[in-house]
Design goal:
12 helices; 431 residues; five-stranded mixed beta sheet
Length: 431
């Protein structure tokens, strides 16, 4: 026999089954000799043959040591051992295998011979029930148990020459107990396998979640560093460069300090370019391969699904924006769409990026169930990690505003507006 789960409990059950069958066969032989049965010699011989056949099958079905088919060494030796292991597995007594069916058929045939010679052999039917249910598929195991019980009852009636209630109740009750026990064990085994698979899936999901959290933390830190470099070093160097350029224009061409001012301006310009390269390297991945409009269009395409259609539009003439502006607008759009997907139950949403003379605006509108903005929880957060207070704080940091218009059953309109200082920005980018 072979168990699908080689645990101490199943090992103990196998030993109990071996002991039960061996003990019942010994009982048949002892009673045949002790009572001087007419065919005592044949009974003892057939009992020993049955025990031998059972022992061969039990040894053939024992689980081998872990990794028996894998050895260190040359590839030829490993391949030979793998082929030998495959042959042994095909020939072993395992549930559902052809060898198991043939071994069980031989065992049952020997038992039927014992039934003909000795009425005591009917007790061997009880361990046979478990063998049949374990080695055969359920659709064949249950009928085999019924046939075995019928053979045991027939043997009792033939040998005793009487019909007694116990002759029917005993074998049938034993068959019912065996069927219930094995089917119950199979159900528990399947449930245990499902739990094991669920645990494996949970462990994998936890690892993926930890990796996602690390990635999110890395991206958040990159974004923070980009914002800090832009708002401090880059802006400071840009101001220094502008001041030096103004000073250079006011100095006469032959002034001794003109060369030093020019060198300082060039050094500030080089460091400003270096700082901007750091900012570009730290920008979010969605902004690395295109403009803000392209990133928003990709975001709408990713969010669009069977239940929600998201469209994107650009209004006005697009102009280049500082990296913190692009990051703020992209994160706001991500957070707003995340809230739409999770809470709004909307069928349509639209994102509009508007470029105006002195400002840039982002509008996110949906036709969902809406909410009361005055009653929105302070700690509200979307999948993008930014709730309304966080979006409002980000806009205020850049000198902008965030407005939300919504009412229950009337959808939601969110607008963020950031000021754009055209001459200053163009001067900075040209530098």
């Amino acid at each position: 026999m072979d168990s699908r789960s080689h645990t101490p409990v199943t090992a103990a059950l196998r030993l109990c089954l071996h002991a039960l069958l061996t003990g019942l066969l010994a009982l048949v032989a002892v009673r045949a000799v002790g009572e001087g049965a007419p065919h005592a010699g044949a009974v003892v011989t057939l009992t020993l043959v049955t025990a031998g056949v059972y022992g061969v099958g039990a040894l053939a079905g024992r689980p081998g040591p872990a990794g028996a088919g894998v050895r260190a060494g040359a590839e030829a030796r490993a391949g030979a051992e793998a082929r030998a292991t495959s042959v042994r597995q095909r020939a072993s007594i395992r549930p559902g295998s052809r060898a198991a069916a043939l071994w069980l058929a031989a065992l049952c045939a020997l038992w039927l011979g014992l039934l003909v010679l000795s009425p005591d052999a009917l007790w061997v039917a009880f361990p046979l029930y478990f063998l049949q249910l374990h080695l055969l598929p359920t659709r064949w195991g249950v009928p085999a148990v019924v046939v075995t019980a019928a053979a045991a009852i027939t043997s009792f009636v033939v040998h005793r020459q009487e019909i007694a209630p116990g002759a029917f109740i005993g074998p049938l009750l034993g068959a019912a107990v065996a069927i219930a026990t094995v089917l119950g064990y199979d159900a528990l085994f399947r449930e245990s396998e499902r739990r094991r698979e669920l645990i494996v899936e949970l462990v994998a999901t936890r690892a993926e979640l930890a990796e996602a959290e690390r990635t999110a933390g890395t991206l958040a830190e990159r974004e923070r560093l980009a914002r800090e470099i832009h708002d401090t070093l880059a802006q400071g160097l840009s101001s220094i460069q502008l001041l030096l350029r103004a000073a250079e224009r006011t100095l006469p061409g032959d002034a001794p300090a003109a060369a030093h001012v020019r060198a300082a301006r060039e050094a500030a310009q080089a460091n400003l370019a270096e700082a901007r390269s750091f900012v570009r390297a730290l920008t979010p991945p969605d902004l690395e391969h295109g403009s803000l409009a392209a990133a928003l269009e990709r975001l709408c395409a990713r969010t669009t699904g069977p239940d929600l259609t998201v469209r994107f539009a650009v209004s006005g003439t697009p102009v280049g924006l500082p990296t913190p502006y692009e990051v703020a607008l992209l994160r706001t759009a991500q957070s707003a769409l995340a809230n739409t997907v999770r809470h709004a139950r909307a069928g349509r949403a639209e994102i509009t990026l508007s470029f105006m003379d002195t400002s840039v605006a982002l509008d996110v509108v949906d036709d969902g169930q809406g909410f009361d903005p005055s009653g929105a929880p302070v700690a509200e957060r979307g999948d993008g990690g930014f709730g309304l207070p966080a979006m409002r704080s980000r806009a205020a940091t850049l000198g902008g505003t965030l407005s939300v218009e919504s009412a229950p059953g009337q959808g939601t309109a969110l607008a963020v507006t950031l000021p754009v200082a055209g001459p200053v920005q163009n001067e900075e980018r040209a530098a």
